[in-house]
Amino acid sequence: MKVVHLKYPHQLNLANESTAYSLAVGFFDGVHRGHQAVIQNAIHMAEQLGIESAVMTFDPHPSIVLGGRKEKVFYITPLQQKLDILEEIGVENVFVVQFTSDFAKLSPEDFIQYFIRDLNVKHVSAGFDFSFGSLGKGNMDIMKEYSNGDYGVSVISKQTDGEEKISSTRIRHYLQEGDMESAANLLGRAYEVPGLVVHGDKRGRTIGFPTANIKSIEGSFIPAIGVYAVKILVQNKWYDGVCNVGYKPTFKNPDDKQLSIEVHILNFEKNIYGEEVKVGWYKRIRNEQKFDGIESLKAQIERDKNEAIEYFKTLRNS
Length: 318
Description:
By secondary structure, the chain is α/β, with parallel strands linked by helices. The chain has two domains: 2-164, Rossmann fold (3-Layer(aba) Sandwich); 190-317, Riboflavin kinase-like (Elongation Factor Tu (Ef-tu), domain 3), CATH 2.40.30. Helices cover 31% and strands 28% of the residues. It contains ten helices and 14 strands. It has helices at residues 33-49, 62-66, 79-89, 101-104, 108-117, 140-145, 168-177, 180-187, 203-206, 294-317, and strands at residues 2-6, 21-25, 52-59, 93-98, 121-127, 152-156, 160-161, 164-165, 191-198, 212-216, 226-234, 237-246, 260-265, 276-286. It has a six-stranded parallel sheet with strand order 1-4-3-2-5-6, with helices on both faces. Strands 9-10-13-12-11-14 form a six-stranded antiparallel β-barrel. A two-stranded antiparallel ribbon has the order 7-8. Helix 7 runs antiparallel to helix 8 (180-187). The radius of gyration is 22 Å and the shape is elongated.
């Protein structure tokens, strides 16, 4: 998959104008089932027209530049993870447009000129609610109106699960609640967080449950604190595991607010410090709790481990 970074008004000439594209355009945080419908349409149209498939996404999140949010922005899929998923889907090209103040001021007409016509886009696919240009004044009706027959347009209708729209907002809500099964249903896959194995306090090994201490990629959305059945990708192989997200209240000073992500990997003996890994979150087993001693903690971890084993056994047999 070819990735091209574009910045307005400079660097627009990085695109290969001799190549024609069927383009899916949107922010696509999460690349959830709704996004996938847009992207698959673009891939389908590329095949129909005998041209290359492409996705246009934006970085960073518009609210960071426009100041629409007071809280820190966390991505369901940070950029590199988003690119990895798009490659797995089968997208041939990705245009990553740097979202700047200048870019945000573009009129809808200029957006179409620079980012559709000048890139030799022959078909545009987007969701029914996609907006573009200054103050989001551009919509898919305008995209059609200004085409003059130079490119085709597909507007993908609202994708729903139950009565509600499949959205990144809903997925974030489920992650905040620790409802990993509902999040996975909307994503079309288990929620995953990439990270690095770093040194922790090594207390797990002293009580018979060694853990990999995970430092998540900056900007990742970490689910609600608690204990989870997870899978972890280590050296290109997935392993079952139990993950604790929280503040380790049994051992830590309550004023220490450093969140930790620790995975006890089942049937695993290797030393993996410094390895890049990926944690797939499947089911929340329980909330984090404080225990009155090591023995009661060990007994609970054993129960958590057995619950995770049973969960994955059931999952494999379903």
